[in-house]
Amino acid sequence: MSEGFRHIIRISGVDIDGSSKLAYGLSKIRGVGINFAKAAVNAAGLSQDVRVGILTDDDVQKLQSIITHPEKYKIPNYLYNRRRDVESGSDMHLQGSELELRTKLDLDFMKEIRSWRGIRHALGLKVRGQRTRTSGRSNRAVGVKKKAIIAKAGVGAGEKK
């Protein structure tokens, strides 16, 4: 490892391991998938095989700018994580806490308008058509209910031997 190697790099509020490859390191940021990360690396003019710890401060700032404003760097909009937004109608790419907040607001909106997905979310059931008869039984009783413990013990309290 060279003397300019850094073990931890901070990009978009996330600490990234310096020994990981560039595209995979960027995909650790919430909202940045592997395909978007590869497109960002290509837009920055860097190699995907470069390790994150070797990046200069200018490279880090350029990657940060590409992730926050991908439309300026001609990243295709099919890689964005929020296309045709309900409120604005535009294509956006959200990351970090923005993405978490927007997802929560979307779920609250679905619950408020009482859509099918909103009702399923509110009830804690599966949303995307999965079966629920046998799977997804976390924190619930499974199978047949047991009879009273006294009956299982054998001799009742009032019976003679």
How would you characterize this protein structure?
This protein is mainly alpha-helical. It has two domains: 8-79, Orthogonal Bundle (Helicase, Ruva Protein, domain 3), CATH 1.10.8.50; 96-137, no CATH class. 35% of the residues lie in helices and 5% in strands. The chain contains six helices and two strands. The protein has helices spanning 22-26, 34-44, 57-68, 97-112, 116-123, 149-153; strands at 8-11, 14-17. A two-stranded antiparallel ribbon has the order 1-2. A hairpin with a 2-residue loop joins β1 (8-11) and β2. α2 packs across α3 and α4 (97-112) crosses α5. The longest helix has 16 residues, at 97-112. It is elongated, with a radius of gyration of 26 Å. 14% of the residues are buried.
Q: What's the SSE blueprint?
A:
Blueprint: E1 8-11, E2 14-17, H1 22-26, H2 34-44, H3 57-68, H4 97-112, H5 116-123, H6 149-153
Antiparallel strand pairs: 1-2
Helix pairs in contact: 2-3, 4-5
